[in-house]
Amino acid sequence: MTTTLSTRRAQAAPAGTTSVRQRITERVAPYAYIAPFFLIFGVFGLVPLLFTFYVALFDWNPIGEHVFIGVDNFTRLFADARFWNAAWNTISIWLLSTVPQLVLALGLAHLLNHARLRLAVFFRMSMLVPYITSVAATTIVFAQMFDRDYGVLNWLLGFAGVEPIDFKQSVLGSHVLIAVMVTWRWFGYTTLLYLAALQAIPRAIYEAAAVDGAGGWKQFRHISIPSLRPVIVFTIVTSTIGGLQIFTEPLLVSRSAPLTCGPVRQCQTLTLFLYEQGFGQFQFGYGAAIGVALFVLVVALATVNYVLSTRIRPER
Amino acid sequence: MKLRIVTPVALAAALALTTAACGGGGGTTAAAPPEGGKSFDFWSFSGINQKASVEDYQKKNPGIQVKLTEVGSSVETAQALTTALAGGKVPDLVLIQGDDLPKFVQQPQNFYDLRQLGADKIKGDYLDWVISQSVAKDGSIIGIPTDVGGMAVAYRTDLFKAAGLPTDREEVGKLWPTWDAFIETGKKYTAATKKAFVDNAGTSVFYQAVNQGPQKYYDPSGNVVYSTSPQVKTAFEYGIKAVQAGITAKQSSFSEGWSAGMGKDQFAVISAPSWMLNAIRSNAPATKGKWDIATIPGGAGNWGGSYLAIPKGAKNPKAAWDYITKTLNPQGQLAHFVDSGSLPTTPSVYKDAKLTALKDPFFSDAPTGTIYTNSLLGLKPFYIGPDSSAIGQEFLNAITNVEQGKGDAAKAWDAALANIKTAIGK
User: pTM for the full model?
Assistant: First the structure.
């Protein structure tokens, strides 16, 4: 539009001035187009980020005094067993949710791409339903299903003669419970990403492979996966970033001790620990220090993942 | 997953940012009052039907407009207030739950000293130990109490009968003058029925017992004494004893299993402040008429209660104060009790016929007013500090861990002390 307008103007006005104006417009316009994003990112992303680093250096009572204490929050943090517990919980829940989720999504995408399904659009679209369901609703339903005394899961296990399992109370059980919720919520979205990428692969390649005698598994292994590399890298990086920030699910698991996700912090994640310190205890400085530590952890793990996943290459 | 890419720190910082930028959710309607003081902003909790009292007030005071915002749960309201105070855009009147109050009392500069508006003249109307919780170190009064919980035991008459226990509320109260006797009664019940007696040990035993004495987690001058206070240790031991007696249903209060278990006869007894009666009604409507209410072991107790406060930046403190004096005076609180069952903080109406005559059909026509107000009269004031709720939560967690998890009963006390020390640094 800008181009058309300026071209028109160029025809009407004296040649010399317009070409300068036009050149300036063309230089500036792209920046103007992307400016809204960076403006909003600056206000809601960058400034809070930098401000967090600043607050982390204070004993910061939101409604009282702000005392500069340097790195004391960090020294305290690294000596705090609750921090390491939360870090371990976060990584454990992330692994338990991300790995099955990506594998499941890959398999489902393959099926949806190849199988001759009736109502294919229906199946593809219905996978997005968990994604658009409110996290709180999902969590409450799952927490009920996994309940020790009145949960449908333990009721079914009862038929097999299994003693009721108290998922929420044990460390592994609560991690599995949250991982199931996260997987449930995200596998459809990831599947559709993979499916879109799979559909971009020319059929001819599969047909050629079939002529050469490659079966379904070999086609999947040697054509689909290498072709999906960019999408797999993308999903691994985003699920690392998202998975390390799981918050709502653990917050809603334990009604009696919500901020710690249970009496012994069995599923308290780093974001929940941050929330407990910041909003539960009003220690904004300490909460901000947890945020900085989480930031470092996310950057580190995302980098490692990126490096590892770029090693998926087409075989030659 | 793209949507989840909120910078990790954003959460920490968003809070700081909100303080600077928006001044907290909920109350963005704040505007200059028209015609000098005819309207004011009021932040309250959701789910307590604050609207009814506001409408009643507006009816009696035509021309005054109360802009009520139901922010969320009591905790969410306190959080919104915190960000609002830090950001400077505050409501004129705010409801603060008792557990959240100490953090604000520690920073009284954020609130109007209600003595300047006339609180000195009316403070004698309120229970001493209740109003003293809103008095700051400098002597300023930052909140006027709206209600208290009181304490009693709700029990199932049908299940008691099946277990061969008495069902009359007087006799049941006599079964457990002490917590030891309560646990013994539980053993008898469980032996006779093979079912759990009480919902859990943490809230139904420990939380109640720890409130029954002159000193809790702090001494009167505000020093933390949770590790040496005999009252705390004794209450903790009662909790552990109840677990070891095997009389608890291991259902944490307000959990899904707790709500379900209530309707499925999983336990026969709940320690219930007055507001809990509504939770029982809505969780187990089919048990109507099968419950009754008896006195709590130890006789006295309280759980819950809230305060109305006026933030320093309020635009119309006079109108807010008028609301406080007109709705929280003894007669106002009595009327509110009759309407909603929330217990007055003004002892002068405890003998009023309107209060004593009230009977609750869901609970076998128990005279709730009399039972709950009696539990308040024996209470002694104790100092509640900024970390009281954190300390209480850690003790509760330690007991729950023994009850539901793999916690070692012998090590529970030391573990709780260690956790508290990490949490509050002293």
Answer: 0.83
Question: Rg of the Cα trace of chain A?
Answer: 26
Domain with A11, as residue range(s), is 2-55
Contact A45 B10 (CB under 8 A): yes
Tell me the backbone φ, ψ of residue B198, rounded to 5 degrees. -125, 155
Name residue B147's beta-bridge partners.
B306
Same domain, B258 and B373: yes
Residues B156, B291, single domain; the answer is yes
pLDDT at B35 over 90: no
- Determine contact: B85 vs chain A, CB below 8 A: yes
| CB within 8 Å: B422 and A49 | no
Domains: count for chain B: 2
The residues with which B198 forms a beta bridge, in sequence order, are B248, B269
Residues B97 and B156 in one domain: no
Based on the domain organization, do B399 and B335 belong to the same domain?
no
Statement to judge: residues B195 and B277 lie in one domain: yes
Same domain, B335 and B388: no
Amino acid code (one letter) for B53: S
A40 and A80 within one domain: no
Report yes or no: A248 at the B interface, CB cutoff 8 Å. no
Cβ contact, residue pair B8, A245, below 8 Å:
yes
Predicted ipTM?
A: 0.81
In whole angstroms, give the CA distance from residue B23 to residue B41.
14
Which residue carries 């003693």 as its tokens?
A: A163
Triad A215, A219, A223: Cα angle to 5°: 165
Residues B207-235: pLDDT tens digits?
999 988 888 999 988 899 999 999 999 99
Judged by CB atoms closer than 8 Å, whether chains meet at A51 and B13 is answered as yes
Domain that holds residue B63: 2-148+304-349
Whether chain A has a CB inside 8 Å of the CB on B398: the answer is yes
Q: What is the mean pLDDT of chain B?
A: 87
A23 plus A83 within the same structural domain: no
A152 touches B258 (CB < 8 A): no
Chain A's closest residue to B85, CA to CA, is A63
Band (pLDDT 50/70/90 cuts) for residue A301 is confident
Mean pLDDT along residues A229-254 = 89
Overall number of domains in chain A: 2
Q: What is the pLDDT of residues A135-147, one digit of tens each?
A: 999 998 998 899 8
| B253: contact with A, CB 8 A cutoff | yes
Q: Give the mutation candidate from B2, B3, B4 for the A interface (greatest A CB count, under 10 A).
A: B4
Residues B315 and B172 in one domain: no
